[in-house]
Specification:
12 helices
Length: 353
């Protein structure tokens, strides 16, 4: 798989990023990509959020916005896959071009703007997945033209609840105007109260309790982090995904696209997102599950996230430069790193740095 992608990458990267991504999803749906060899190691098994993950390596939201290839993606060796972000109504997103590769920096800038086919189509696909294939979450957002953000998130939660293993509330994309304002204390408390109440109703209706995670930005101030930690603990939110893309631009970026508007992901995000993760681990005191995301492309980086406080991790941008073979390399490498340091399971290493 490594050699195959290495050979194809020059041709793939000649295509516009969005075209290449669409082609990749099509290939997955058609079964044209070989599945990853199984690697069921006891040290990689994670029990968290009331779920059992075969391994802690997840696919972040954004790759499969409309949940069209969840089973095929789980077949690539991920311990879990997060589909979305989905909004109540379909929307086109921002004008193209809106994805830019930064190959010299092993990074991507996107300003997609929650382009998706809407909840109805999402549920049509997501409800047909094979639940024996693995764990799948749904990432929900608000429409750009929404006048009631809280109502959009409640609508999303209610729609995906019967079908998802967990739900992520995305309030941190930089590409929807004013979305990140929902991370501010007063608005966040109102949103989480509405979601908490909606989940109680869903539990009564569906007789099952599923976890809710909040996805936050890496560009938060210390006070904003404190406010978020306090709010999620007060409202029974089960976890945080730390973090989304950044609007900052590190000085060392080399690519000609480095000043494009949008969220930066990939290698340059690793340090910022990991420091943010460490801060949230201290603020939440291990009382909720943290998912480390942002810049992971190796087993060493996945392990660093775990030691910084993450029980689970997610990647995405690394796939643009390494292909799906990255998943197998990170899984096996993480197992070796755990063994080297005398840990018999992932959870023993959480927060040890």
């Amino acid at each position: 798989m490594t050699d195959c992608f290495s050979l194809l990458r020059p041709f793939i990267h000649r295509l516009p990023p969005e075209t290449a991504h669409t082609a990749g999803l099509w290939a997955l749906r058609q079964g044209l990509l070989p599945s990853a060899p199984p690697l069921l190691l006891p040290s990689l098994r994670v029990d968290a959020l009331g779920l059992t993950f075969a391994n802690p390596i997840g696919l972040a939201a954004g790759f499969d916005k409309n949940a069209v290839a969840v089973d095929a993606l789980l077949g690539q060796g991920f311990g879990f896959v997060e589909a979305g972000t989905v909004t109540p109504k379909s929307q086109a997103g921002n004008p193209r071009p809106r994805i830019f590769r930064l190959p010299e920096d092993e990074a991507v800038i996107n300003r997609l703007g929650f382009n998706n086919d809407g909840l109805a189509r999402f549920i049509e696909h997501f409800s047909q997945r094979d639940k024996t294939k693995g764990i799948a979450g749904a990432n929900i957002g608000k429409n750009k033209d929404s006048v009631d953000a809280n109502a959009d998130y409640v609508t999303g939660l209610q729609a995906v609840y019967p079908h998802a293993d967990y739900v992520t509330v995305n309030i941190s994309s930089p590409n929807t105007p004013n979305l990140r304002d929902l991370q501010q204390r007063e608005k966040l408390v109102q949103l989480l109260a509405a979601l908490s109440l909606a989940r109680q109703e869903c539990v009564r209706t569906h007789a099952r309790h599923i976890p809710i995670l909040l996805k936050v930005a890496p560009d938060l101030s210390g006070q904003e982090m404190e406010d978020i930690a306090e709010a999620v603990l007060a409202h029974g939110i089960d976890g945080l995904i730390v973090s989304n893309t950044t609007i900052t631009r590190p000085e060392h970026l080399k690519s000609r696209h480095r000043f494009e508007v949008g969220g930066l992901s990939g290698a340059p995000l690793f340090t910022l997102s990991t420091e943010c993760l460490k801060r949230f681990y201290r603020l939440t005191g291990g009382k909720i599950i943290l998912v480390g995301a942002g810049g992971i492309s190796s087993a060493e980086q996945a392990y660093a996230k775990v030691r910084a406080g993450a029980t689970l991790v997610q990647l995405y941008t690394a796939l643009a430069y390494q292909g799906f073979s990255a998943v197998a390399h990170i899984r096996s490498g993480l197992a070796k790193l755990l063994e080297k340091d005398g840990f018999s399971r992932v959870q023993e290493a959480v927060g040890t740095s």
